[in-house]
Each structure stands twice: as C-alpha cells, then as structure tokens.
Amino acid sequence: MLSIGKLGKGQERYYLEKVAEGAEDYYSGEGEAEGQWLGDAAKDLGLSGEIEPEQLTAMLTGMNPATGEPLGLREVGGRGSVPGFDLTFSAPKSVSLTWALGGPEAAAEVAAAHQQSVEAALGYMQANACWTRRGAGGAEFVHGNGYLAAAYLHRSSRNGDPQLHTHVLIANATKGPDGKWTRLYHPAIYDHAKTASYLYEANLRHELSRRLGVEWQEVRKGIAEIEGFKDEWLRTFSTRRAEILEAAGPGASARARQIATLTTRHVKEKNLSRETLRERWQTRATEIGLDREAIEATFGAEVDLQAQLTIGQLDRQVTAHASHFDRRDAVQAVANLLLNGAPAPEVQSVADAFIAFDAVVSVSEGAKGERFTTQRIWELEREALQRTARMQAEPRGEAGELIAARVIQSRPTLKPDQREMVRRLLAGREGIVVVIGEAGTGKSFATVAAAEGWAQAGYSLRVAAPTWRCGERASSRGT
Fold first, then answer.
1. 113-135 pLDDT, tens digit each
2. Could you tell me the residue ranges of all domains in the chain?
3. 304-392: which CATH topology?
C-alpha cells in the first residue's frame, strides 16, 4: 500500500532530526537501515548509496546534495511550496510477519522483493507523475528528469508490530528539458498514487511467489495476504490499525480514518534493538500458534507466474463501477485480477494491450489523458438511449391527481419542490421524467412518496438504484 504525506514547510531541521539522525527512532535509528538514494534526478547528480545527514538537509532546502551549491530552484506561479513529499510503501501484514518470523533466509527474500517493488512503483511514478511547469503562470506542463529521492527502510509500526515499510522522501524539485530546476506539479503525484500502490502490490506478489513459492488469498483493492495466514494472526499484529478503526468508529470515511490516525498518534518507542523487537514478536506469536514452521508451511508451492487474462475479464473489471475509464484504471484492473501478481512493467503492458484492442473505444481526450469505454458498455448505453426515446414518445398511464394529492397531504414535511416532484411523477403522462437535485435535498424521500402512490394505483414497480442504501430505502417501503 502507498500513502502520501507532505513534508512541513520551514521544518527542514525537524525532518533532519526525525529522518536522518533518528531522534525519534522513526525514519532511521537504532537497527534501521541507512537511507539510500533513489530516483533519476539523484542519478543525474551523481548520488548513490548511503545518505549523509547534511545531504538530506541540502535536498530539503533546495541545494544540490552532491556539492552543497544552490540548485537555482524557481517557484512557478508565485506561491511558496513545501520542501517535499513522503511516499510510504507498506507491505501486507502477512508479508511483514514472514519477514519478521520466517527465519533469516525468508527475511532476506522478503526485504529484497519489497525493495524491488518499491523501485518498480517509483519508476511508474517518475514516468507518469513527474511534471513541472513553464510559461506565463505555469500554463505549460513539461516532464521533469525524475525524482530526487531518499529511501528509508523501516521494520515496525508505531505500536511496535512487524510492519515492513519504506519511506521515500521526494524533494519538491525536478529539472525540466531546459535544464532549469523548478517545483514539481504535485497534484500529479496524488493522481497516480493509487495506481502506483496497485503496481507495488502486484510486483511484490510476483516476487514472493517466485522467490518463496507462496500463494495468495483474494486480491481486494489491489492488496492480498499470503494464503495460509489466519485472520487471528493478522489481527494480533495489527494493533495500530485496530486502534485507528476504533477511534474512527464503524463505517467511517477515509477522511475520518485519516483524522483518527493523527489524533491517536503517539511517539514511537525509542532505542529498541532488533533483538528486543524480535523477542517480543516471538513471544506474542507463540501464544497464537504462529511459529517459523507455520510460516514455512506456506512456502514451496508451484505457482503459475504467467499473466493470463481474457478481454472479458478485463472488460468486466474495468467497468465494474463506472462506464468509462483511463489508463490508470486499466492498470489497476490488470493488477487486481492477477492473483500471483506480475512485474510492474508487464502489468502496464497488458493494460496497454487491452486499451489497444478493438473492444475498447476512445470517448474523450481530457487534461488527465484519454478516456475509454468498451464496446459492450457502448452497446448497452446505445440500447438504453433508444429505449428511452421510445418510452418518451409513448404516453404512460398515470396514478392521477387524486392519489398525488393524497400522498402529498399525508406527508406534511414535503417541501414545495418535493411536492411538485411527486405531483409530476404521479399525475404527469410523460414516458420519462428526469429529477435533478443536489445530495441531501430529499430526492429519495420524494421518490418513496411517489412509489407509494403508484402502488396505491395498482402499478407493479421495479426499483433500480446506483447505491445500495437508496435502493434499500425504497425496498423497505414495499416498493
């Protein structure tokens, strides 16, 4: 999974202490791996290997980490900018437990697979989300030369659970084709984060299937756990997640969970050695029957690593929740369908091949790229429009003014526009009536009132709704 955070403006020293010197044992510290340079812009500056503290300071303050000289970084649009972004790639819990409890050989393979997958996902981000701007007011978008990035591998969550994850700190800077350094167009980073997350997970599944012979449970929203890991094992070592969900409450939105994450955050325990952490993990694991032998029992399967998908599978996946899609959606669909994953470039290649197939139709070209639909959806929509035209031309029977008046009178809380809507639906003779209103204006309440009127008039009703909740409300009234 990939999450993104902005680095605070004017807090470079704080990040230096937090990241490079391990003052809070969070980004680096006792037992954590040294930071490593990543990104094409770092390569262009001759940066590789371990990161020195002063180099990170330079990176976050617009200086060349290799020489200490200013990059000549310019603002575009006249606004101040944050120093950078924190892209955090986190392995699924079963993968982290395999790394923590599966023995040194398994740990090495997991760590290598994780690192390779992080780099693959970052490669996608550089190719698709590394933009800067030129021209008056920054109206022209141009590709940058890649990210100037520092990667820090971490072993545990704030609650001390095994949680293999890498913080990739990206400087808010890239060099354009003209050789000048300017700020990143950062909305692109957020636009492509979900797709990068799916690619990280698919690449990781492929690498671990290849390296350890593990199989996978169902892929949900791009993420899967290793087959053979019990839910109890995952819950026991997911105390931070449980803490956040409890604080947010049942059915909480993503925004509510984000707020709960911040409000329940506490200082990570300092100066824990690797040995101390592993002793704690082993003790807890033994209590629930999770030992090295149980983890090794998930290894050694003969896994099919060929990415074999049908056009029909991709058609259904990419149009499951929307009638049109873009390349990002196609990449996500491929990744979600590949149980054993695939290398990130191969996932993208399959998505591009699908888009080029005759069954896919281009429908628009927007600021964020071309959008598509499938021939199947195109035909369904055309048939629906033709049917709508026929229904519009053919008068229908109405429930009548009397029933409309009775239904409206029985609901004194109906507002004037809702009363007019009910009257129009019940007493009008149009074959099609379109109701438009903002969320929360009472469309569903008025529709249920009209449905009761139709039922009183003896009409058999069929209800379809874009959301379960809306359809359930109508069904609960016997319509």
1. 999 999 999 999 999 999 999 98
2. 2-301, 304-392, 395-476
3. Arc Repressor Mutant, subunit A (1.10.10)
